[in-house]
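Section 3.1: Structural characterization of target chains.
Under the original work plan, the team committed to producing a structural model for every single-chain target entering the pipeline before any wet-lab resources were allocated. The record below documents one such target. The sequence was received from the expression subgroup and is listed exactly as submitted; it comprises 142 residues.
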Amino acid sequence: MHTEDNCIFCKIVKGEIPSHKVYEDESVVAFLDISQVTNGHTLVIPKHHARNIYELPEAVASDVFKTVPRIANAIQRETGAIGMNILSNAEEIAGQTVYHFHIHLIPRFGHDDGFGAKWETHADDYSQDALKTLAANISTHV
């Protein structure tokens, strides 16, 4: 079970585990990912423990997301990255391994930089009517 008590990111927030911080304010911490998928790979996390996007309060999300452009631009200026992947995984099926909401900022330097994010598209599998119905159904839950 993943709880705040055994969460590695909560321990980083509390200073119990060292990290290489690039940014910190009253509600957000950003630090270099230990894996460094590419040079400058950074995680942006709320200090508030939330398992993932599904549990993230809107006010906390606002604090996190408003810092992302500032940190992304700082990474780009320092590393000279020509692009950046910005992603967050929710639950094991999506690749989440640390159950504290976090955003990966992965600088990109070329097609051979060690990271790829390519997926298949299925546009031909959905009619315009099916998309219209799906959008309407999703909107009822917002």
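Helices lie at 8-13, 58-79, 128-139.
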